[in-house]
Amino acid sequence: MAPKKLVPALLTGLLGLSIAACSDPSVEKDAIPTPAPSSEPGSSNGVPQVSRPLDASSFLEDPCKLVDNQTLSAFGEFEEGEPDVDSNHAQKLIGPTCVWYGKQDVGRAVSVIIDTPHQKYAQPHLRGLAGVYASKESGSLDYLQAVEIDSHPGYPAVIAGNRKDMEEGNRCVVYVGIADDLTIKTSLDGGRDPEEACQVAQKVAAAVLDTLKQAN
């Protein structure tokens, strides 16, 4: 079985969101990748709003169902997804998670997380994408770039994290707002470089949104 390398990095990101203070969120422009800027129709205090919220409750028991094997095969060969929905991390810190580890390269892994703990336990004004923007403003995260997920303009998203983690791990995390108080995080660890990792994470996010729309 592949080593569980993702949990510490994902925990760091979530804890950063939990302790952030919110004041005039800002977006950094000199992103490591250079995606097209988001063009969301509505915003609150600079945070883009979700036009049509999506219900992810039917996937809380098995978030692996959010992404099919055909989608993953475009990025390499992966083992079957490993869900975590009952641990303390899943229930109280990160949220229901699925990780797909590379068959040949165990350092390459795709993950999807439904961030329900942040929705439940964060202060109301820090839930959803607002918490990510607040983390950038407070310095808990030093990198944030708004992006638009292909074919899903109504669902604002950002690439966010710490530059060192992105560069040293060739990793990227995309936060997608599926409601104003709830995000889904998609990521790739062990990419060829941070830009490739962000491209894959965004494509996985598009697949997640496709699945959620079909379920709603």
List the secondary-structure elements in sequence, H or E.
HEEHEHEEHHEEHEEH
Oligomeric category: single chain
* Low-pLDDT residue intervals, each spanning 5 or more residues: 5-31, 34-41
Give helix % range: 25-40%
Number of H/I helices = 7
| Tally of individual domains | 1
Description of the structure:
With 216 residues, this protein is an alpha+beta fold. It has one domain (6-215). It has helices spanning 6-19, 69-73, 88-93, 116-121, 129-138, 163-169, 194-215; strands at 43-44, 47-48, 82-84, 97-101, 109-114, 143-148, 156-161, 172-179, 182-189. The protein starts with 5 loop residues before the first helix and ends with a helix. Mean pLDDT is 84; it is low at 5-31 and 34-41.
What keywords describe this structure?
seven-stranded antiparallel β-sheet; 216 residues; two-stranded antiparallel sheet; globular; 21% strand; alpha+beta; single chain
